[in-house]
Amino acid sequence: MGKPRVAFFDFACCEGCQLQVANMGEDLLAVLGAIDVVEFREVMSEKGEYDIAIIEGSITTSRDVERIKKIRQKAKVLMAYGSCATIGGVNGMKNNFELDHIRRYVYKDAAKYFETIPTRAVHQVVPVDYFVNGCPIYIPEFVKALKCALIGIPYKVPDHAVCVECKLNENECLYDKGLTCLGPVTKAGCNSWCVNHNNICYGCRGMVTNPAENGARDILEKYKIPMPWVENKMNMYNKVREHDEKEEAHGKKC
Amino acid sequence: MNHYMVLKKKDFNAFIEKLSKKMKVAAPVRKGVKNFAFEEVTRGDAISRVSLPTILPPKKYFMPQRETIQTFDRAVPRWNSVVSENDAIVIFGVHTCDLSGIQFLNAVMGTPPKDANYLARKANITVIGLECNDYCDAYASCKAMKTHLPSGGYDLFFTDIGDAFMVQTGSAAGETLAQETGFFTTADTGEQKKLGNIRKKKEKIFKDEISVKYANLRTVFEKTVQSEVWEDIGSRCVACGNCTNVCPTCYCFDIQDEIDLNLRTGRRVRVWDGCQNEEFAKVAGGENFRRKRGQRQRHRYMRKFAYPMEKYGTYACTGCGRCTRTCMAKISLKETIHALGEEAKS
């Protein structure tokens, strides 16, 4: 059997995750040794048949819905990667507003040419086999998930807090520095990438499936952090979770 | 063996420097605003000799956060055991609470089936303890857990007596190491007396920090399994897993297989895991035996105060206070024990 044909597709996104892949460095050669890339807009353009579809971006128009359904039909395996594809990401902020209003706000007089629907993550439209969360994706995790796809075993996104990896890296807790970090409610798997570099966690990997809402409220009270402020912060990446019928069901799949 | 020597403070820097030329030296250094961590040092003045317990206890040298334990090649039906090659390392500045943590882990990992990787690392580690002459902060409960004074687990043990350190030898390896540096002299009676005074002063400073007596702890926990205290803690806990990761006696791990991009060779690694994590007690089919955070917290406490007493005849709490200090929800070990103690009375 030849190498699996892999196609990268993007929907509503910044293509930053594709850039991450293109900038992978040495590992990229090893990856290219294992797969045959047939579609990758950042570095090439070619249409064709494929076995594995790797999807970036969220679903924001009816055209997107049709397109992702076609890709799903054609692909044997479908991977959603990046926050936009896996949890809706920043595109979800649109869902905070009334659709027509926000369409006119963005496109002004040209609004009528831009049909729009509430932002959804890929798994909210078609079944997804592999999730690689994060904005952008964390390359070591992407490679890990890709290897799982190639060998045909599941890849499980960790369902514990970023704090776990952060502690293993022995970082000083950002709350001890007076900062508010979303690590305690965000799914791990990024090796606490941001905190390792002295930045807070923005929750780009999505919330853990069983978040402790009471507990989280207590923490906010203790550190005197206003609730609406944190809700805004949380919604920056996680607004689209409202479309998940059952959070737990999503958790089991990934 | 087991006699006292003296290291003058003016020689401390030279001692660490000399040691670090021979082998790796790890010691507590300041990390960020309020924290400390064991890190490699080459100079004595980089070490924080008075410090809060470090973020992670020295268990990370005995059982790293992430460690390859086997390798495989799918073409050859065999697992190759890997006992990591590790350099000799001296850990300086291990407080008595952490010494007791190391002693506990030694007992667990040394009980059959023995943990080959842990024991291989342990064989290359020299432990130099450092006495706390005063409390580190109010979270500690070392007197109540009987770990505020040295009681083994070290190769050398340092006590600050002013212009010098009194150094007690705990092993032949420790004694040899000290002799080889050439900085240590035999303690005189004046210095012996200074040590005695420090210990007397400590008797006054260190008082039982918890309201339940050491001997009764196990019974209290066994009697309060159904307590509402666990519901309350469960409603506050966010399951960040900080308490188990920083605990000197938590040793649970996950085993993960990683394959290379050639899809043929790979390795089996063990990574720290903990009972507070959502997936820890989750099994195939999605069932979770400890879905509620209160159940997980209760399990953690039982693993410190009830189960180890039955299996190893000792508590697994060192009184270091790390779990309380690091808790996002400010769940306090001392308050929990107090609440359970009150309930057990009625």
Describe the structure concisely for a colleague.
The complex is a heterodimer of chains A (254) and B (346). Chain A is α/β, with parallel strands linked by helices. Chain A contains eleven helices and five strands, in the order βααββαβααβαααααα.
Largest interface, per-chain counts? A-B, 41 and 40 residues
CATH superfamily of the largest domain in chain A: NADH:ubiquinone oxidoreductase-like, 20kDa subunit
* Fraction in helix of chain A: 25-40%
Based on CA atoms alone, the radius of gyration of chain B comes out at 22 Å
Structural class of chain B: alpha+beta
Order of helices and strands of chain A: EHHEEHEHHEHHHHHH
Low-confidence runs of at least 5 consecutive residues of chain B: none
Distance linking N and C termini of chain A: 28 Å
* Spatial strand sequence of the major β-sheet of chain A: 2-1-3-4-5
Share of helix of chain B, binned: 25-40%
Count every beta strand of chain A, where a strand is a DSSP E run of 2 or more residues: 5
Total beta strand runs of chain B? 12
Named CATH topology of the largest domain in chain A: Rossmann fold
Low-confidence stretches of chain A: 247-254
Distance linking N and C termini of chain B: 50 Å
Keywords:
heterodimer, A: 254 residues, alpha/beta, Rossmann fold, 2 domains, five-stranded parallel β-sheet, 11 helices, 5 strands, 9% strand, disordered C terminus, B: 346 residues, alpha+beta, eight-stranded mixed β-sheet, four-stranded antiparallel β-sheet, 13 helices, globular
Give a verbal description of the structure:
The complex is a heterodimer of chains A (254) and B (346). Chain A has 11 helices and 5 strands. With 254 residues, chain A is α/β, with parallel strands linked by helices. The radius of gyration of chain A is 19 Å and the shape is globular. Chain B is α+β, with helices and mostly antiparallel strands. Chain B has a domain at 4-63 and 82-205. Helix content of chain B is 35%, strand content 21%. Chain B is built from 13 helices and 12 strands. Chain B has helices spanning 12-22, 59-62, 96-110, 116-123, 172-181, 189-205, 217-223, 228-236, 242-245, 293-305, 307-312, 322-326, 333-345; strands at 4-8, 24-31, 35-40, 66-73, 76-81, 89-94, 125-130, 156-160, 164-169, 185-186, 253-259, 265-272. In chain B, the strands form 2 sheets. Chain B has an 8-stranded mixed β-sheet, with helices on both faces. In chain B, helix 7 packs across helix 13 and helix 8 (228-236) packs across helix 10. The radius of gyration of chain B is 22 Å and the shape is globular. The termini of chain B are far apart. The mean pLDDT of chain B is 95. The interface between A and B is large, with 41 and 40 residues.
